[in-house]
Amino acid sequence: MYKLLLILRYLRRKLAPMFAALAVTLCTAMVIIVISVMGGFLEMWRDSAKKLSGEITISAGLVGFGHYDDMLAALRNHPDVQSATAIIYTFGIVKIDNNVLKMEVVGIRPDELDEVVQYRESLHWTPERIDRDVQKNSPDPNEPKLWPAEKGETIGHYREFKGEDLIGAAMRLEPPKQWRTDLPAMVTGIAVYPGPRDKEGDFSLYANATMGNEMTVTVVPMTEGGQLILQQAVKTFVVVNELKSGFIEFDANRVYVPFDTLQQMLQMQSFPITDENNVPVPGQMSPAKTTAILVKSKPGVPLAQLKASVAAAIKPIVKRIPQQVRIQTWEEQHATILGAVEKEKFLLVFLFAIISLVAFVMVATTFYNIVLEKTRDVGVLRALGASHLGVAGLFLGYGLAIGVVGSLAGFLLAWGVVANLNGIQDFLEKDLGAAVYVLFYAVGGLVLGLITFLVLGRIGGKALLRWRLRIAAITVFVNIVIGWIVLHSVPLLYDEVQRRFGIKIWDAQIYYFDRIPAKLDWTEVIVILIAAVMSAVLGSLIPAIVASRLDPVEAIRYE
After folding, report:
1. So where are the chain's domains?
2. pLDDT for 136-150, tens place per residue?
3. Which of 79, 70, 65, 88 is nearest to 294 (CA)?
4. Distance of alpha carbon 360 from its chain centroid, rounded?
């Protein structure tokens, strides 16, 4: 009992242990915040990578493989599979506004693809975003049409966006009827040919060179042996929407066209088999081809189990395919970039954990000084019958108390920062300048209030002397109100203050993610809290041993 009483007494009356607890608090919060932000980055990359990859991908190279309809039927009948779709990947050249770009061309069936991955959800230009863009950037928000900036003449004909169902157009891969075009539709990654983004990181149709524009796609068919067919396939499409998966590898290098159209351009459709004289053999057709199949599992099916089930379901069909078929999970497909982000997370956490050793040193130093200061107290305890372990336990319990208090306070601080990280960023960028400006007025008001207080003290009557403190406080308040009114009455002043004093930690115009990602992993948080408590206990270990070995007589005589 005496241990608990002394621990509580020391905690209440000593300032040095509070500094040790503060060190534990700050180090704990720092590590949790860093690991949460890096964990948020990793989680966002993982979600983006999975968003348009499917859980399982079956592929056999750019040449493609046949009998994919039989594979789809077998997969869709398997109890572990919820949906599957065929998809074609190839490389091509796209031309837009006299700019020629190398691109990955993807042939899709939108409805089927949406059942497997988040295709519809990834389409960027929803009616809400279009209306928002009109309100933010249109010279005339009431104008019923919305043109890409300075592109009206080069397109050859204007495209309407406001009020159009561009999500439906992207799901059908057909241009809206109001566009009056017979061209087939396509969807591009939002970073394929992007215009500049605004301060909030939003894309704008006014600065966009892709939406509503015509894009020429050139692909080169291949023989089954992998040799290029000299005859190129060229087709012009009109862009009806843009896709934002959040994975820059996709969004900067992909365009999406109808599956059947790309299949014909690559000569992968079914056609009659001919003999050596190039005469069609009656009743014999070559199977149509695709380059990949994406598979989605039913809820609750582990990824490893799904991979094994897919392999078992298509095994009889694979035997009829000359190409070597690969089955990969989405994690295996993107292992390189996800592994790199994981390594960066580990490296940063490791570095900040080393920095956090300052808490260990702070606790050890504080407790050693306490042992020196309380030498006579320790002697008295030993003389009254306290054992060596009892004295050591007193200081170890003291360290445990500081570790628990510091780690819990650090967790609360980190939780508050992580939960409001984007709000803190918005305040630093948008409101810090206003706060600094008003603070200047507050300081000026404080000076005026102090002068008023002193002047009234010298010349004021008795009644006025009783009110001088209130009058000084009112002077400060009035000055703050004047500063706030002036700041918000002059927009140019507000913008200038924001530009000079605002701190931009996360620039949405540079980074591909609109907001700072952060995620608290409770397993990691618990490990960090336990490590913080243990560091405090270990920091008190050596001072505890020193205290327990003090001779009672010498300790009592200690000056």
Report:
1. 2-44+349-548, 54-333
2. 766 555 554 544 444
3. 88
4. 32
In sequence order, the 6+-apart residues with CB closer than 8 A to the CB of 73 are none
Backbone angles phi, psi at 105, to 5 degrees: -100, 130
Of 251, 252, 221, 223, the residue nearest 234 (C-alpha): 221
- For 67-103, write each residue's pLDDT tens digit: 999 999 999 999 999 999 999 999 999 988 778 889 9
Cα 435–chain centre separation: 29
Name the phi and psi angles at 171, rounded to 5.
-75, -30
Q: The pTM is what? A: 0.73
C-alpha distances (whole Å) from 530 to each of 362, 469, 524, 534, 544 are 18, 51, 10, 6, 20
Task: Summarize pLDDT for 194-242 with one digit per residue, the tens.
Answer: 666 666 667 777 667 688 888 999 998 877 766 667 678 899 999 999 9
Distances (CA, A) of 252 to 114, 255, 523: 20, 9, 35
Round to whole Å and give the CA distance between 540 and 465.
56
Provide the Cα torsion 301, 307, 309, 313; round to 10°.
140
Residue among 382, 274, 290 nearest 88 (CA): 290
Chain-centroid distance, C-alpha 334: 17
- List of residues 6+ apart from 364 with CB closer than 8 A: 539, 540, 542, 543
Q: What's the rounded Cα separation, in Å, for the pair 16 and 438?
A: 36
Rounded CA Rg of the chain: 35
103's enclosing H/E stretch is strand 99-108
CB 410 within 8 A of CB 352: no
Interhelix angle 388-419/16-51, nearest 10 degrees: 40
- Of residues 232, 143, 177, 548, the one with CA closest to residue 381: 548
Type of residue found at 492: L
Contacts of residue 530, Cβ cutoff 8 Å, sequence gap at least 6: none
Q: How many CB atoms lie within 10 A of CB 357?
A: 12
Taking the C-alpha atoms of residue 193 and residue 210, their distance in angstroms, rounded to an integer, is: 6
The residues pairing with 328 across neighbouring beta strands, listed in sequence order, are 57
CB 543 within 8 A of CB 371: yes
